[in-house]
Amino acid sequence: MDPEAAKKADQFEKWLCKRGVSVVRKESLPPGRSVPDKHASHAPGDLRCIFVLGGDGTFLSAVRWIGDQSIPVLGIKFGEVGFLAEITEDNLSAAAEAILGNDFNTSPRMRLLVEVRRKDGESAWETVLNDVVINKGTLARLARIETYVDNHYLTAYRADGLIVSTPTGSTAYSLAAGGPVIHPAVPGIIMTPICPFTLTNRPLMIPDSACVEIRLGEKSSGLMLTFDGQACLEIDHRDTIIIRKGAHPVHMITMPDQHYFDVLKAKLRWGGGRV
User: What is the pLDDT along the chain (275 residues), one digit of tens a residue?
Assistant: First the structure.
């Protein structure tokens, strides 16, 4: 955990306890855990809300901890970029006062439900807020990624990988791979190839009602499936990946003086804004 975030968490916990608020504290787990995760746990269902002190990785870890529950969550920026953070640490006390007084709103953020049908007949399930990514290893050849949308064949990407993301995740890995920026309220799923061999393979946005099915070519090897950059699963041509809109969105707390486009301009340094 970031030392500054840990120090602020100590101070914030004392601040809450003085106001008679019971606190459950949990440090984020390091990314790279395997699926299924035997050590996975979920947030207590009676939590009023969750404050996340850290960067986007910490926020994504907290969302995995929440699971399918509708517990509101607020991000407090400590990382470098912080697209998922709503406020900075300077505004934490004021935001907490508003939340304790029920003076806040939430914005639902779509998640993706990912099913991996395994060669042995078993299935693995994960949900993601940002993205699910097929990545090749450092020594692997180009992957052949056969993609279907609503049971209709789309294309076979020959690429280093493929990113399937939510609108929230459009400003994460997908953006770095040349994908579009999509407002979180726009219903859709973005498919962005990573370094495609065919230059006409461009990012594609499909309706959020669509179901994406992915199969790998027989010569595709050394591939990993990663979920929000937090957990991973080794895959090969015997696996089938099914991706669709999840039934349980993340309820992100919003502050009245924060606007998405102001955050976007600042983070991407449009019009002279600075991070």
Answer: 678 888 999 999 999 999 999 999 998 877 766 776 666 778 999 999 999 999 899 999 999 999 999 999 999 988 666 789 888 888 999 999 999 999 899 999 999 999 999 887 889 999 999 999 999 876 667 889 999 999 999 999 999 999 999 999 999 999 999 999 999 999 999 999 999 988 888 999 999 999 999 999 887 777 999 999 999 999 999 999 999 999 999 999 998 877 788 878 877 878 754 55
The CATH number for 3-109+249-272, chosen from 3.40.50.10330, 2.40.50.90, 3.30.70.20, 3.40.50.10540, is 3.40.50.10330
Which residue, 254, 256, 253, 275, is CA-closest to 264?
A: 275
- Answer yes or no: 56 catalytic: yes
Closest to 156 measured CA to CA, from 173, 134, 178, 174: 134
Among the listed residues 37, 56, 103, 120, the single catalytic one is 56
